[in-house]
Write a sequence for this structure.
């Protein structure tokens, strides 16, 4: 009973997805759908790269995959894109879920939207640069 309550608390306050070991989406919560603009039906069974922003270098994802395939937790700021192409910034934690034999069963990603903070910071930087000029 308490486990369900913990799951609900995480689900209601975060953007959550699960993928299989190959990065194919097996679960998304409503918050993920809301921020991405995709429906659950469009996301389930798709590669997680469906939300990958083209600005993010392939090297970043290479390091991310090396980390999680080594059964370590990845934490970082990831720039994604919505269905309509808008950039969003997500503070992301990806956790490998292991079976009883210590093999990776799936990955759970928990995110927080920090887009507004990043955009405000970019505007502040532009304003400061304009004032210097």
């Amino acid at each position: 009973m308490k486990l369900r309550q913990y799951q609900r608390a995480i689900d209601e306050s975060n953007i959550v997805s699960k993928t299989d070991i190959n990065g194919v989406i097996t679960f998304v919560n409503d918050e993920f759908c809301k921020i991405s603009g995709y429906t659950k039906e469009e996301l389930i069974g798709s590669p997680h790269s469906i939300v990958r922003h083209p600005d993010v270098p392939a090297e970043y994802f290479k390091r991310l995959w090396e980390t999680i395939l080594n059964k370590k937790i990845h934490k970082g700021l990831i720039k994604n894109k919505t269905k309509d192409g808008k950039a969003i910034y997500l503070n992301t934690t990806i956790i490998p879920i292991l079976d009883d034999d210590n093999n990776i069963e799936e990955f759970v990603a928990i995110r927080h939207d920090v887009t507004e903070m990043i955009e405000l910071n970019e505007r502040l930087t532009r304003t400061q640069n304009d004032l210097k000029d």
